[in-house]
């Protein structure tokens, strides 16, 4: 039922708005018919070994839509090595595996941008039992600047106004911002991103909007003065590997992990959406599918623009 509802809403979205930027579902049907199957296989194999990889791939797609993810060079620090991305992004090896297999089947045909879009969709399906079609035909960019990550990606300290503006800059509405925020229901955060709300919020100690019991649990997992940069905490303590409405239940109960999560309750419109999504998983899932498709069309290159990378980590020589 959930998948049918999502599919119906997605179809309506595509009919009303059109698939922009020359992207189309089934783009590789004639040139590399196994493209989506190869990506799905790589994602499934990785998911079996580590269910947390789904969150990594979903987040990577979000970040690649807002910026561009390639490796740094001796003369340039790329987005993936900027503070918002490093060391939190993960799952690059899954994209590498899929790309390697596809290059052996149909070299120079399937872009890394499309592989990442497919992998995010497959991650959503594996972790949330929610499927949707991905319009494809993207080409890969050739530049990546660390500074763009800091200026384009919303930090965890963002308030609702800042979030709304950042998403609006990319052509996404406030409602779509709330919908896509639900992706925080899976995955993990480094304690360094959580600690300011626990120990030094506006220089006064603990954030007063944080549920007391939740704050205590977070402090146990992220002790003050911790020097382990790799210490992490699950975004959703109840179902950290399941894409569901748990994010909204937590935010509604003052258990949003970041300021950028809890801030959704400070605005009447976004708070109403939080409450609605918390009580209706099917509705949120359908909106999430449509928002993912729209987000996947941000700033894409098509036609003769960009390139098809032979290696997803570097531009072609």
Description:
With 317 residues, this protein is mainly alpha-helical. The protein is 50% helix and 2% strand. It has helices spanning 2-17, 35-49, 53-66, 92-106, 112-128, 146-152, 160-168, 174-181, 191-199, 212-221, 246-252, 259-262, 268-278, 281-295, and strands at 188-190, 232-234. A two-stranded antiparallel sheet has the order 1-2. It is globular, with a radius of gyration of 19 Å. 42% of the residues are buried. Mean pLDDT is 84; it is low at 8-20 and 81-87. Ca(2+) 1 binds at residues 64, 67, 79. Residues 1-21 form the signal peptide. Disulfide bonds join 32-106, 112-312, 191-222.
Quickly list its features:
single chain, about 325 residues, mainly alpha, two-stranded antiparallel ribbon, 14 helices, 2 strands, signal, secreted, Haem_peroxidase, peroxidase
Number of strands: 2
Structural class assignment: mainly alpha
Q: Hey, roughly how much beta strand do the residues contain?
A: under 5%
Unreliable spans are 8-20, 81-87
Biggest sheet, in brief? Answer: 2 strands, antiparallel
Radius of gyration: 19 Å
Instruction: Please tell me what the overall shape is.
Output: globular
First-to-last CA distance: 48 Å
Mean pLDDT: 84
Tally of contiguous helical segments: 14
Q: Helices and strands, in N-to-C order? A: HHHHHHHHEHHEHHHH
Instruction: Give the fraction of residues assigned to helices.
Output: 40-55%
| Largest sheet strand order | 1-2
């Amino acid at each position: 039922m959930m998948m049918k509802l999502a599919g119906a809403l997605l179809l309506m979205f595509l009919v009303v708005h059109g698939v922009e930027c020359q992207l189309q579902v089934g783009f590789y049907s004639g040139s590399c018919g196994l493209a989506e199957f190869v990506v799905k296989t790589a994602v499934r194999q990785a998911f079996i070994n580590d269910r947390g990889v789904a969150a990594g791939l979903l987040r990577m797609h979000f970040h690649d839509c807002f910026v561009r993810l390639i490796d740094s060079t001796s003369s340039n620090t790329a987005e993936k090595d900027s503070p918002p991305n490093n060391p939190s992004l993960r799952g690059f090896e899954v994209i590498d595996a899929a790309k390697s297999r596809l290059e052996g089947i149909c070299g120079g045909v399937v872009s890394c941008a499309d592989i990442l879009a497919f992998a995010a969709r497959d991650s959503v399906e594996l972790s949330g039992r929610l499927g949707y079609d991905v319009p494809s035909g993207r080409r890969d960019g050739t530049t990546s600047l660390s500074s763009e990550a800091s200026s384009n990606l919303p930090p965890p300290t963002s308030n609702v106004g800042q979030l709304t503006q950042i998403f609006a800059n990319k052509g996404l509405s406030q409602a779509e911002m709330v919908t896509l925020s639900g992706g925080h229901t899976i995955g993990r955060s480094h304690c360094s991103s959580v600690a300011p709300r626990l120990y030094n919020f506006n220089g006064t100690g603990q954030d007063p909007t944080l549920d007391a019991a939740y704050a205590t649990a977070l402090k146990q997992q992220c002790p003050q003065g911790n020097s382990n940069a790799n210490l992490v905490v699950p975004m959703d303590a109840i179902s950290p590997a399941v894409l569901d409405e748990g994010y909204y239940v937590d935010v509604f109960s003052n258990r949003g992990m970041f300021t950028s999560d809890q801030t959704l309750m400070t605005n009447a419109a976004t708070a109403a959406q939080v409450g609605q999504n918390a009580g209706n998983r099917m509705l949120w899932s359908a909106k999430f599918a449509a928002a993912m498709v729209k987000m996947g069309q941000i700033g894409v290159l098509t036609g003769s623009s960009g390139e098809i990378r032979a290696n997803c980590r570097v531009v072609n020589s």
